[in-house]
Design the sequence.
């Protein structure tokens, strides 16, 4: 398992409303987690932004990751994001914090 994903599982997934205290995911069968699905793109996006500014990192994530997600409409709107149903969007600051603490992996 990717060591950064493992670390996310043990930190973010434990706090996620769809996770449990051990980091296991409790999403219903057939439902995919956007954070997990797009994790490789998330890591390359984070590494491509020359600042750890949360605002700039979110902007980059919306432009590179959300743009390849079928949930986003042509106008850039996303009902899942609006309803706080996207784990990637909900926990992005936590993901940034975790990746930052392990930044040697993405440099
Ligand atoms: S929905 Fe995603 S972030 Fe939440 S527990 Fe499942 S894998 Fe982790
Ligand atoms: S915020 Fe919407 S478009 Fe972006 S990854 Fe989540 S579900 Fe997909």
Sequence:
């Amino acid at each position: 398992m990717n060591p950064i994903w493992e670390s996310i599982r043990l930190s973010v997934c434990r706090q996620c409303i769809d996770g449990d205290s051990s980091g296991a995911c409790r999403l219903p069968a057939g439902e995919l987690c956007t954070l997990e699905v797009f994790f490789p793109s998330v890591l390359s996006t984070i590494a491509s932004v020359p600042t750890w500014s949360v605002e700039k990192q979110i902007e980059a994530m919306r432009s590179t990751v959300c743009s390849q997600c079928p949930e986003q409409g042509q106008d850039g709107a996303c009902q899942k994001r609006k309803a706080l149903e996207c784990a990637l969007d909900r926990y992005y600051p936590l993901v940034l914090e975790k990746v930052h603490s392990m930044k040697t992996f993405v440099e």
